[in-house]
Amino acid sequence: MSGIRPKPARPDDLALLRPGLEHCLVMREDAVFVNGRSPLRGREAITAHWRRFYEAPDAPFSWRPETVVVLSSGELAQTKGPVFDPEGKTIGEFRSTWRRNADGSWQVVFDDGACLCGTRQQ
C-alpha cells in the first residue's frame, strides 16, 4: 500500500502502542497475522484486512498489553493481553511477537488473537 511505511518501535514502546492501524505500522514487511485458518502474510495484506475495522469513528474492539517479556538475548519479545468489545467486556486475547532490528528498534513478526468463546470472561 502506498503511504504505509514502517514505524519501528523502541523497547519501551512495546506496551504503549495504541490499538488501531498504528499497530500495522510497526509490522515487518514479512509479518504474519494468524487469522484462523488463513494467515495473512505481509504488512500490506495485514493493513488491508484491518483497515475496515477503523473506517468508522469507533472501532468494534480494543486491546491492552498486560504482559511484555523479552528473551535474555534481547532479540525477541512478546506482548499479550485482553481484547475488549466496545462496552469493555473481555472477548479475546492477543499475542504479538516482536524482533529487534539492528538499529535497536522493534517490529512485529507474528500477530494473532484468540476468542475466549465461553472461557474466562471478565
TrEMBL record:
SUPFAM superfamilies: NTF2-like. InterPro entries: NTF2-like_dom_sf. This is Nuclear transport factor 2 family protein. The lineage of its organism: Bacteria, Pseudomonadati, Pseudomonadota, Gammaproteobacteria, Lysobacterales.
